[in-house]
Amino acid sequence: NISHNQAESHLRELKTYYFDRVLKFGLTPPSFGLMLDFSHILDSNASAFIDKTMSCNLSDNDGNQVSTFVTAWVSDIGMYTKLSVELADLVHPKNFYPYVVFLYLSNCMKSGHSHFASKDTLDYILIDNDRCFVPERVAALNFTRHYRKRLLVLTDTLFSQTHVCDVPPDMINRFKHTNAVSSKVPTLGSQLREEIVKDNIMGPLILKENPEIYEEIDGRVSTLLAHYHRSCDESDADKYNPILRKVYKTGDIRYAYMVQGRDYMIAKFEDDYIGYLKAVGKSVRERIG
Questions:
Q1: Cα(272)–Cα(236) distance, integer angstroms
Q2: How confident is the prediction along the chain (289 residues), in pLDDT tens digits per residue?
Q3: Which candidate, 84, 101, 233, places its Cα nearest to that of 156?
């Protein structure tokens, strides 16, 4: 049941791999999906057991095959300590911030024992990702604190202090470019969807699972940038994006409406700019419109 907070999905593993390709972080080993044929199994009882236990409503299981996820074997890795705010100030793998940002953007609910690092490079390696891309509607459910902490540690690590300012500048600049109103570059969520569409075998299945997650990725990018702007850009709006200053902070709002089931508003500004408004803090904001 992928609508449950404890659900695990091989399709989420594939989404993680494709998102890593979009971001170019190099966190995941080479991976792919395939339809596994078990019709060659001579024992009819065993074949029937596989058919019963491996089928799901998101798999094109026709009684002889089932969708699967395959990833390359990675040697010389070890479990790394679970994430915490304190770890950001201690000795940690060299790719700590790309790793944490990836987990945050993909809403990845990793167990404490699911963090791994290479013994050779001392870099994080992203494996065991079947609880990444948890939809916000599932994350909002009233489940135990033990599971909720797996998501809270990501926002706490990035936003509770000024650790967001340690996110590499080239990463921040790329996020600004993809999320800018004036940019012709597709958003990260759109780029992920485009990457998945290229997979002729597994793409249709992946797109059927939680189609809202692509828009939610872009929302989290906006939240990360807003925190970065507030904590690291010295409140200079021009460093964030000059068009955002002109349009969002001084432009008139022609009309706006709430999006059902979301926590933001779609607004149309002067000169036909369209954007969305989302609260990212409790402090009083400058009035616009």
A1: 25
A2: 455 555 678 889 999 999 999 999 999 999 999 887 776 666 666 656 666 656 555 555 555 677 888 999 998 898 888 888 888 888 788 899 999 999 999 999 888 888 999 988 889 999 988 889 988 887 777 666 777 788 888 899 999 878 999 999 999 999 998 987 767 789 999 999 999 999 998 999 889 888 899 999 999 999 999 999 888 876 554 454 545 545 455 566 777 766 665 556 777 776 677 776 665 555 554 554 4
A3: 84
Q: Which of 65, 109, 115, 70 is nearest to 92 (CA)?
A: 115
**Tokens coding 144:** 């135990």
| Structure token digits, residue 104 | 């945050």
**Angle at alpha carbon of residue 98, lines to 203 and 4, rounded to 5°:** 50
d(CA 224, CA 97): 13
Give me the residue label for tokens 């008139």. 252
pTM of the model: 0.74
- Three-class DSSP labels, the chain: CCCCCCCCCHHHHHHHHHHHHHHCCCCCCCEEEEEEECCCCCCHHHHHHHHHHHCCCCCCCCCCEEEEEEECCCCCEEECCCCCCHHHHCCCCCCHHHHHHHHHHCCCCCCCCCCEEECCCCCEECCCCCCCCCCHHHHCCCCCHHHHHHHHHHHHHHHCCCHHHHCCHHHHHHHHHHHCCCCCCCCHHHHHHHHHHCCCCCHHHHHHCCCCHHHHHHHHHHHHHHHHHHHHCCCCHHHHCHHHHHHHHCCCEEEEEECCCCCCEEEEEHHHCEEEECCCCCCCCCCCC
